[in-house]
Amino acid sequence: MFRATSPTDGPTAGFTILEVLIALAVVAVSIVAIGSVMSTNVRGVRSLEQHVTLIQTVRSVMATEVSSHAKLGFGTWSGGTSDHQWRIDVSSMGSEWGAPSKDADWIPALVRVQVRSPSGAVTDLKTVRLVHKLQQ
Questions:
Q1: Which one-letter DSSP state was computed for residue 30?
Q2: Domains of the chain
């Protein structure tokens, strides 16, 4: 009786152990590379979220503490908002920035807002606001 042999029968059938090990090594390297990319993306997203929270806190402090010209006076004060610590310094712009007329009711002042997040990140914003001369 004649028996037909197929190419999958015999000693050459299937993968050798070396081929399997190479395939596993390629898969492992690919998984490590994908994990590294994902880890970098997660760190980047977390950093951006912290930065956005810090900037939102600065905007909130500017809106609530520095918004009204009538309340703003020279000096330093500080406080806290949602685990963020803030400090506001209002100082004179200098004599060259003063109003040319002695009758002016408002003078420019340098306002520096500094906010520190719980993680230690700090942002510093400087702006100019008008301060009533009587509050000088």
A1: H
A2: 17-135 (2.20.25.110)
